[in-house]
Amino acid sequence: MWDRILIFLTRALLDACSSVRDLISIAKQDVRDLLSSVRRKDAHGINAYLASRRNPKKMIQKCLKKLRRSASATSENVSTLKDAESVAISFLESLLSYVLGTKVHESKRSLLSKLMHSKKATDNENEFNKLDSLLQLNQENELVNHLKEMDSSIQVLE
Predict the structure, then answer these.
(1) R_g of the chain, CA atoms, integer Å
(2) Deepest in the core among 36, 54, 131, 137, taking most CB within 10 A?
(3) Keywords in UniProt for this one (predicted)?
């Protein structure tokens, strides 16, 4: 019985980690493609980026749902495993919520915010939301700088 619970938990966490890795890879490629489109002043490439943001958001929401379902299905008898799973799930929820552009419950201190705390993050504006607003405002220089910063941040996450 314990081995089945452990296998179930491990599989759920591995699936979540794999999904997060895929999403980070997609985000990295999207940022690089957008930076290239901005430099070439390619409106089609910018519009393609805006349209492509829907798919990762759906994947993130699906992954968050699976993580929450996995957390609720865990047995109370496995307190050590549950604690480890809760920390991992909390981290992954924070990471996915960060990429999605939504806030995690305010009562929880986000592990991601602890890991990625910087002086620039004081305004609590999500990087992807800031990117969207820069695209709408047509601020090319700021957009290019922001895309470069996002690319280096994504490399740190990888």
Answers:
(1) 18
(2) 131
(3) Signal
